[in-house]
Write a structure and sequence with these properties.
The chain is mostly helical and about 170 residues long. The protein has one domain. Helix content is about 60%, strand content about 0%. The chain contains 5 helices and no strands. Helix 3 packs antiparallel against helix 4. The longest helix has about 35 residues. The chain is flat.
């Protein structure tokens, strides 16, 4: 009779994070060269490193070393891209308040939207790594409360449901 293999730890799926990184990198390519602080190939190189770190976690079975490597690479990626986005935002704000003619209105708008979306994606990655100690710690200890609690989560279940009514001014 064959012995059963040792049980593997359940790992949080990594494909949403990989998709977030790919969307962020594709938005970086949309930005004009004047707005980018770093060359686009450096962003791709960092993106490749973080994707390799994400793929290594399931391949190693979620060993602590690979989780720690993934965490540090993710945070360094967010720091690097975030610093570039802050510099890009500074350029966009200067261009908005003191136009030099390098960017027309459409380029200014699309670049601003790209910077805004990239900042949201960076926040999502940092939150994914930091809330309750990271992704695998959330899976191990579900009783631990979230680090950031929204007001709606604190409402008691005993409250009556909110109902709406329409008052017709013609009948009253």
């Amino acid at each position: 009779m064959k012995p059963f293999p040792p049980p593997t730890r359940w790992l949080e799926p990594r494909w949403p994070v990989a998709l977030t990184i790919l969307v962020g990198l594709s938005l970086l390519t949309v930005l004009r060269d004047r707005i980018r602080v770093f060359p686009v190939w450096l962003s791709y190189l960092l993106g490749l490193v973080i994707l390799v770190a994400i793929v290594l976690v399931p391949l190693t079975g979620g060993k602590p070393q690979s989780l720690r490597f993934e965490r540090w690479i993710t945070l360094l990626f967010c720091l690097f891209i975030g610093a570039g986005m802050l510099a890009g935002l500074r350029y966009l704000l200067l261009e908005m308040f003191n136009p030099s003619g390098h960017l027309d209105g459409l380029e200014l708008f699309t670049s601003s939207v790209a910077v805004w979306v990239i900042d949201i994606l960076i926040f999502a990655l940092v939150y994914w790594q930091s809330d309750r100690g990271g992704s695998e710690a959330r899976q191990r200890d579900r009783r631990r409360p979230p680090d950031w609690l929204f007001p709606q989560a604190e409402l008691d279940d005993g409250l009556p449901p909110l109902t709406f009514s329409v008052v017709n001014p013609l009948t009253h």
